[in-house]
Amino acid sequence: THFGFRQVPEEQKEALVGDVFSSVASSYDRMNDAMSLGIHRLWKDSFVSSLLPRLPPSFHDPDNSASGPQKIFKCLDVAGGTGDIALRILDRARDKFACRDVEVEVVDLNEGMLNEGRKRVAKTMYYNTPQIRFTHGNAQSLPSHIANNSIDLYTIAFGIRNCTSLPAVLSEAHRVLKPGGKIGVLEFGKVTNPLFKEVYRQYSFSFIPILGKIIAGDADSYQYLIESIERFPSQPEFAKLMQEAGFKTGQLREGKGGAWTDHTGGIATVWTGVKA
Ligand code: SAM
């Protein structure tokens, strides 16, 4: 691949990623809050509301279940970890559209993260409902029960940069989405403003490993996370990869009508596309 882990052989990379997330799973949510000063919550809120400005009309129809088989809006949240995105999708559908005909399957490579997610869901109204389930699996070759053309919305948040092959992840996403289905990728972008870029660099390289050591007792894992951010492609490079995988995107620029939207100066970026 062009991006990431040049020095780590492919077979070792997944094991390495596994170790990183096993060692941080239980402190993962606290670390996110500490590292981003809580801002990751706003990025995630905005990610989910931009992908679900509304639900397709049939899902607002109170007779959805009366006429023919009940329709379900199917979401797949890949590298979904502790369920942050999945729970936001379900909450938005319920709070905003009074709709519970939405199901999210969370797929993640790490059992530790999945178990944290399961524990978290046990405290919500979605516990023991078909609305959410957690599945062990790899973004690069999704579990075989997820059929071609079966998904309405595919999300991946802060997960794709850990994958060995970005084209493999995108082509799997494209395969399982229904024609017209949407993909949303939330990931660390590149900060373009030179001054802000330097501040961000200093912050990441000095402060984050220290926070990692204090909160998670593990500076190395967080050092790894920072390096993975640096290696990830730029906003236009990633948008091109999406197009190469067959997605229709906006134009190759930031903002309305563009292929991506930057948050906090490009620290985080949302790319969206549609399966043609
Ligand atoms: N989406 C969650 C969030 O935004 O809080 C979790 C993000 S966490 C930084 C990255 C997740 O990606 C971890 O849970 C890790 O296990 C998972 N992951 C890494 N490589 C993966 C792969 N190839 N397939 C599926 N999940 C993967």
TrEMBL record:
Binding, S-adenosyl-L-methionine: T82, D108, N138, A139
One function term, GO molecular function aspect: 2-methoxy-6-polyprenyl-1,4-benzoquinol methyltransferase activity
Primary localisation category: mitochondrion
Highest taxon above the source species: Eukaryota
Pathway(s) the chain acts in: Cofactor biosynthesis; ubiquinone biosynthesis
Subcellular location: Mitochondrion inner membrane
Lipid bilayer topology: Peripheral membrane protein
Uppermost EC category: transferase
Gene Ontology terms: cellular component: extrinsic component of mitochondrial inner membrane
Family membership noted in the UniProt record: Belongs to the class I-like SAM-binding methyltransferase superfamily. MenG/UbiE family.
Subunit structure: Component of a multi-subunit COQ enzyme complex, composed of at least COQ3, COQ4, COQ5, COQ6, COQ7 and COQ9.
Function: Methyltransferase required for the conversion of 2-polyprenyl-6-methoxy-1,4-benzoquinol (DDMQH2) to 2-polyprenyl-3-methyl-6-methoxy-1,4-benzoquinol (DMQH2).
Protein's name in the database: 2-methoxy-6-polyprenyl-1,4-benzoquinol methylase, mitochondrial
Organism field: Tremella mesenterica (Jelly fungus)
Source species taxonomy: Eukaryota, Fungi, Dikarya, Basidiomycota, Agaricomycotina
